[in-house]
Amino acid sequence: MTTTSPFSLSFSSSLRPSPLPHPRRATLINLASTHSISELVMIRCAAPALASTTRAAAAAPLTSPPKKRHWKQGEYPGLIQDFSISPKNKKTHPIKNIKKKLDKKNNAKAWANTVTEALSDCIDKKQWLPALHVFEMLKEQPFYQPKEGTYMKLLVLLGKCGQPQQARQLFDRMLEEGLQPTSELYTALLSAYCRSNMIDEAFSVLDRMVVLPLCQPDVYTYSILIKACMDGSRFEMVESLYQQMAERLITPNTVTQNIVLSGYGKAGKYEQMEKVLSGMLKSTSCRPDVWTMNIILSLFGNKGQIEMMERWYEKFRDFGIEPETRTFNILIGAYGKKKLYDKMSSVMEYMRKLSFPWTTSTYNNVIEAFADAGDAKHMECTFDQMRTEGMKADTKTFCCLIKGYANAGAFHKVISCVQLAGKLEIPENTSFYNAVIYACAKAEDLMEMDRVFKRMKEKEWQPDSLTFSLMVDAYRKEGMNDKVYDLEQEKQMIKASASEIVITFYRCPC
């Protein structure tokens, strides 16, 4: 059932005044009203050189005038200024075949990108499969020698796209080609495992780094592992990682402490969280920053504890920490989840007043608030305003739109929303497919849900726990126990496959 919000966001677009005429342009216009074009050119050329010409006239020896080059017709790229010729009789020759050259240039725009530019474009758009294909094409060229930076970008891309197995295979091929691994490359591979919650596999990478003299882990490596342990509620491993850092004389920084602070907060371990925060306030090397502020506000905001969030906001302001755009986005998201639309609007107006720009995340939080409430009308108005202001939508935007239409029962708009995402070349990921599966389950269209799941695997996007949970609940609701059994078996096979990969990596003599 669609809930109609009594509140209507009013988005105000700033009006830009017309540009004032350029001073030089105004001067030329005034001069042109009293002088001809040829006179203007003579004034500009003669004025600065008049005095020097007069002084040097007597001393200069009598010499023959310099020879002029005889240009072919249409060859000289410009106008020849010859003041001995009357402006009426002076002929100007256009650039030779200029229209043909311009047409040729315009037609060649589609072919302007080289293969390396195509690779960079795929990485920027987070299209990991085309990026790997282009990279293989590049390696076949005799002039191309892949470097560490290229492998680093690809490993980071595969990690962000949830492809740890592909990252592992790419790392192996890099070693086979004779490129020496570095601490940064190992850390990128470790990060790929951590992003997919494959903590044991990430620890195996750390074990390999420790025994390689030139690939020793640093504070960034340990921070990534600590975050994975915190997200996986494996708090006992965090203490062992801190101990390893102390043995290697690696000091945790503010980023590390913020990760631990966030992990304890999400797990509800408020005593440990307060202990870490107190240590940061007393420390001289890792003082709390705006990220610390954002973590605490996000923690209470996600739990719906609005009063605690507002109280801590004032405390951090008293500490001298100034908010940023992300801080206000967190407040907007928290107010939106509790349907406090007046406060949400007040924060947005406050951002405008302080000249903080509304970002994609700002609009996403508002769209998500209306999507969760099934308010398709205000959700669409926000999305339209977002596009009107030239703000680019991302994957989360369309995930929220799809879920919002599903919650509102407007399943026909889910299809058009998916089509629009394809038209705008919005990067797909596991969350995007989960949103479509959620809409199919909400509409009780299990055949379409099964097709989307197959499409997801064809695109080589790894299903996560939410994917299986949504599908299992949908099949179980219809009493399709055989489908539930198949999904549970497939989930176990994915876990077994991941374990087999890490064993192979651990035995590999790198």
Automatic annotation (TrEMBL):
The keyword Repeat applies. Signal peptide: none annotated. Residues 1-22 are annotated as: Disordered. It comes from the Eukaryota. Keywords: Repeat. One of its GO terms (biological process) is pollen tube development. Residues 1-17 have a biased composition (Low complexity). Pfam families: PPR, PPR_2. PPR repeats lie at residues 147-181, 182-216, 218-252, 253-288, 289-323, 359-393, 429-463. GO terms for molecular function: mRNA binding; rRNA binding. The keyword Repeat applies. InterPro entries: PPR_P_subfamily (IPR050872), PPR_rpt (IPR002885), TPR-like_helical_dom_sf (IPR011990). GO terms for cellular component: chloroplast. NCBIfam families: PPR. Belongs to the PPR family. P subfamily. This is Pentacotripeptide-repeat region of PRORP domain-containing protein. It comes from Coffea canephora (Robusta coffee).
